[in-house]
Amino acid sequence: MKTINHWIGGKPAEGVSGSFGPVYNPATGVQEKQVAFASVDEVDAAVAAAKEAFRTWGTSSLAKRTSVLFAYRELIDAHREELAALITAEHGKVHSDALGEVARGLEIVELACGIPQQLKGELSTQVSTRVDVAAIRQSLGVVAGITPFNFPAMVPMWMFPLAVACGNTFVLKPSENVPSAALKLAELAAEAGLPDGVLNIVNGDKVAVDRILEHPDIAAVSFVGSTPIARYIHTTGTANGKRVQALGGAKNHMLVLPDADLDLAADSAINAAYGSAGERCMAISVVVAVGDTADPLIEKIKQRAAALTIGPGDDPASEMGPLITKAHRDKVASYVTGAAAQGADVVVDGTDFTVAGHENGHWIGVSLLDNVTPAMDAYRDEIFGPVLSVVRVDSYDEAISLMNSSPWGNGTAIFTRDGGAARRFQLEVEAGMVGVNVPIPVPVGYHSFGGWKDSLFGDHHIYGNDGVHFYTRGKVVTTRWPDPSDGGINLGFPSNH
Predict the structure, then answer these.
(1) Strand, helix or coil for residue 92
(2) 153 neighbors 282 (Cβ within 8 angstroms)
(3) Residue 8 exposure: Cα atoms within 13 Å on the Cβ side
(4) How far, CA to CA in Å, does 37 sit from each of 14, 142, 185, 214, 310?
(5) What is the reported pTM?
(6) If phi over 0 gives left and psi between -120 and 50 gives alpha, with beta otherwise, what is residue 125?
(7) Which of 281, 297, 305, 390 is labelled catalytic?
(8) What's the mean pLDDT when you consider all of the chain?
(9) What is the model's pLDDT at position 9?
(10) pLDDT tens digits, one per residue of 420-473
(11) According to the model, what pLDDT value does residue 487 have?
(12) Backbone torsions φ then ψ of 150, nearest 5 degrees
């Protein structure tokens, strides 16, 4: 059985802890690989390699950094099919979705290629007689990223390209369920000319995570995952003196007003709820239908759901693949049966779905629930699967009150033809990312991604300007060159005269 190992100091590092985790093909349910789990000593070795590399990379020229990043961008582009195939094999998402993930990650590599513009400082001359003040940003040192299973390439690329462009070195701990894409990204970075030790990968479980959070030589940690783990990462990391950005879970609502284009809304609900089998932190999981909108909208969604093709991700005909593990598949199914027991109407039930010839795969069909209330588990919990709930309300005001009562505030959307209602919504809704007739409002690379409330722990969103600020710290330099007339004793407070 193939073993996925670590990447330390610019080369593969065979796991020596003796601890391994299974890597399954979700479409077949068969374990095809194993991944080495890092010990504390192996994490320490990766950090030591990063610390040594920082001595030269941290003072390298912007021209050198960008030359590597431009080469890296071309290599990722040339290998996007290979990366997508690795994602599909371990995550299960369909090939087109995997290609889209690589393309969105590539946007951040392209942003990192323009780092000289992002790192330009500020200068004020003559703030006092012959005194100038400059504000600059400098790298932090060794930084780390802990990434989830649902985007094995994109989320790591949200982190380390900007981090290394800013002059830091990086230790990445990818999800143990999907380790191969991250390893391929490291191999391509080395081929592009990234010096040994600038990017390191340690695979593993809580042992590796906790060592990253405790290690005194790691200055900052970036995380994407569930809310409980994000809270733990933030609390533990900051207690150990680290800068932390921890992006958590979501329960994204889509508000549909009576004047909306219902065909567009139905298409959007299908795409946003069931794409990637709902395993997206930006998936729409709740449709809030105002007034008489619910019945015709539900009928349109039901018709579209019946036409979806679910199958192995490497089958070009498939529109949705399996879930990541059997345990997760069973948990998602329990929300559908639980909703029925709690009084919801199951309009579409996907819990008994299977694929002929792949009966042991982690399969579930799409489900649609109507008359869901905020008291139900299907509403209160982040399901992270292809289950869409419909909540009926009488008015816009009732809808906005419902949505703002959610503990999460990652992304949201409104569907309407009314510009005034859309403007009011984008100002009143308590969420970090808002779509107007756009169901998955993931910002482009030169803006920043992040939510509010329990969807984000820390002060910085990820990538964009926030990403550059997260991976750098400010310094202000006040300069005066001596003049023969300068001097003398003055114990008063300095003045700008």
Answers:
(1) coil
(2) no
(3) 20
(4) 10, 21, 19, 18, 33
(5) 0.95
(6) beta
(7) 281
(8) 96
(9) 98
(10) 999 999 999 999 999 999 999 999 999 999 999 999 999 999 999 999 999 999
(11) 67
(12) -80, -20
Tens of pLDDT, residues 53-92? 999 999 999 999 999 999 999 999 999 999 999 999 999 9
Q: Are 140 and 168 in contact (CB under 8 A)?
A: yes
Type of residue found at 393: V
Position 27, amino acid: A
Residue 37 to residue 17: CA distance in whole angstroms: 7
Q: Render pLDDT for 222-265 as a digit per residue (tens, 0 to 9).
A: 999 999 999 999 999 999 999 999 999 999 999 999 999 999 99
220 φψ region: left (φ > 0), alpha (ψ -120 to 50), beta (else): beta
Please, how many CA atoms are within 13 Å of residue 388, restricted to the half-sphere of its CB?
A: 29
User: Are 261 and 417 a contacting pair, CB within 8 Å?
Assistant: yes
Tokens at 369, concatenated: 């629930």
Three-class DSSP category at 355: coil
DSSP summary character for residue 292: G
Got the DSSP string for 182-210? HHHHHHHHHHHTPPTTSEEE---SHHHHH
Strands (E), 319-425: 345-348, 367-370, 387-393, 408-409, 411-415
Among 178, 176, 196, 151, CA closest to 186: 196
The alpha carbon torsion through 164, 166, 167, 171 (nearest 10 deg) reads: -40
Radius of gyration of the chain (CA): 25
User: Which pair of structure tokens corresponds to residue 47?
Assistant: 């950090």
Which helix (H) or strand (E) segment holds residue 329: the answer is helix 326-341
pLDDT over 70 at 398, yes or no: yes
- What residues contact 484, with CB distance under 8 A and at least 6 apart? none
Among the listed residues 392, 350, 388, 387, the one whose alpha carbon sits nearest the alpha carbon of residue 371? 392
pLDDT tens-digit readout, 103-156: 999 999 999 999 999 999 999 999 998 999 999 999 999 999 999 999 999 999
Task: Mark whether 166 is an active-site residue.
Answer: no
Q: Tell me the three-class secondary structure of 22-63, residue by residue.
A: EEEECCCCEEEEEEECCCHHHHHHHHHHHHHHHHHHCCCCHH
Written as one letter, the residue type at 136 is I
Intra-chain end-to-end CA distance of the chain, in Å: 74
Nearest by Cα to 186 from 294, 299, 46: 46
Go through the chain and tell me how many residues it has. Answer: 497
